[in-house]
Predict the structure.
Amino acid sequence: MKSKDISRRKFIKNLGGGVIGTGVAMHIPAGQAQAAQKNIEPEVPARHKPLTLKVNGQVHKMHIAPETTLVEVIRDHLNLTGTKVSCNQGECGSCTVLLDGKTVYSCHMLAMDAQGKEVTTIEGLMNGEELHPLQQAFVDQDGLQCGFCTPGQIMAAEGLLRINPKPTREQTLKAMSGNLCRCAAYPKIIDSVMDGVQKRSK
């Protein structure tokens, strides 16, 4: 009888844009959908403020409560669920995105403070269906286990490489220290980043 087991690497490759870069799905809140059917503007709560946000090269306009965090807008309003929420206290790095090319914890930042800046999420690294060199490196080097922290790890690495395109292993360890991996896959994560350095330079 043929075994139906597949290797973890093959499984990860078959995920395509899964944990490495979650695909974008259109999401329309129920109130907006009902308003659209009636051809009327959806009602905006009085305390909500207008926000214009540029994410992955696209401009989005919405009204949000002033206390809404950047990760809430990314995940709940734009449905870009590749960015993860774990500690929600700015401690673990799972929610890392780039703001004007620099890494930030999106759970620890108000969305209003990102207005006028360029936000890049894990989805923004992909070129259509083609993985970014860092994303491919994490696949090739098995730089993930459960995969939950992987988008944040990749974004932290991308932030590093935009500042220092050819870091040493020690520099990489220091730069990535703000991103926790609960599976303790750190050696493979660093291997993945170093492989990403080589892939980017080709």
About this structure: DSSP finds seven helices and five strands in the chain. The domain at 126-202 is CATH 1.10.150.120 (DNA polymerase; domain 1). Residues 40 and 70 are 28 Å apart (CA to CA).
